[in-house]
Design brief:
heterodimer; A: 99 residues; alpha/beta; Hypothetical Protein Ychn, Chain: A; five-stranded parallel β-sheet; B: 132 residues; 5 helices; globular
Chain lengths: 99, 132
């Protein structure tokens, strides 16, 4: 299983498209830094993420809170903290960073 | 020659209309902070500054940024200090808000929404434009 991480806003890069089309069901996707904006409810990127319910989708809590979007997040995104990030990294065989 | 110099110095002492265009999210790069530094410096020299937020720059205006969690100072908190320097209006492109499912009421500060159609003339009404 691969952990995909994505750190750029979906509005300024094509990383989310590339990531979603290369991610197998059952893999994990962690949004971090500006990547967390992709999870804002009602956005095009959030519906792209919702369409991949076969992937475990996370956002890094610290980056979400720093950007003031805690209350705006789509319901199907799970928040993890740095410890959760480490656990995901340990659990997965490899990490693919989309940056 | 001496006449030219006088004219040049007169031109440079005119109060120019300067526009800062903020297009980046607050913490992914240092550009948002750089724009604020320019705004504060310009305000200190009593320049006629305007701020325009478009694209990912609109994220800078969300309240309650707990940036300490990632070792930064809140960009939004600094933006809120600008009215102290008579910079009390934030121009925002409406389409950038819509694309991000944001509404004016969710932003902090005195926000004036401009449409895509209004932007070219708005930008053109300034003497100098700096992009961030």
């Amino acid at each position: 299983m691969i952990l995909h991480t994505l750190n750029k806003s979906a509005d300024t890069s094509t990383n989310l498209h590339s990531c979603l089309r290369t991610t197998l069901p059952g893999c994990a996707l962690l949004l971090l830094e500006d990547g967390v904006y992709a999870a804002v409810k009602g956005s095009v990127s959030a519906s792209m993420l919702s369409a991949r319910a076969d992937i475990r989708r996370y956002a890094l809590r610290e980056d979400v809170e720093a950007r003031g979007i805690s209350a705006l997040l789509a319901d199907d995104i799970e928040l993890v903290d740095y410890a959760g990030f480490v656990a995901l990294t340990a659990e997965c065989d490899a990490v693919q960073s989309w940056y | 020659m001496a006449n030219d110099q006088i004219q040049t110095s007169q031109r440079s002492s005119e109060r120019k209309k300067i526009l800062l265009i903020c297009r980046q999210a607050p913490y992914g790069s240092t550009l948002a902070r750089a724009a604020l530094d320019v705004a504060l410096a310009g305000a200190a020299f009593e320049q006629d500054l305007s701020l325009l937020f478009m694209d990912d720059g609109v994220w800078q205006l969300l309240p309650q940024q707990r940036a300490g969690a990632i070792g930064h100072k809140s960009i939004e908190a600094t933006l809120q200090s600008l009215p102290l320097y008579d910079l009390d209006t934030f121009h925002v492109e409406g389409e950038s808000l819509q694309q991000r499912s944001l509404e004016t009421g969710q932003l902090s500060g005195n926000v004036v929404v401009l449409t895509q159609e209004e932007l070219p003339a708005f930008i053109d009404s300034h003497d100098q434009v700096i992009g961030f």
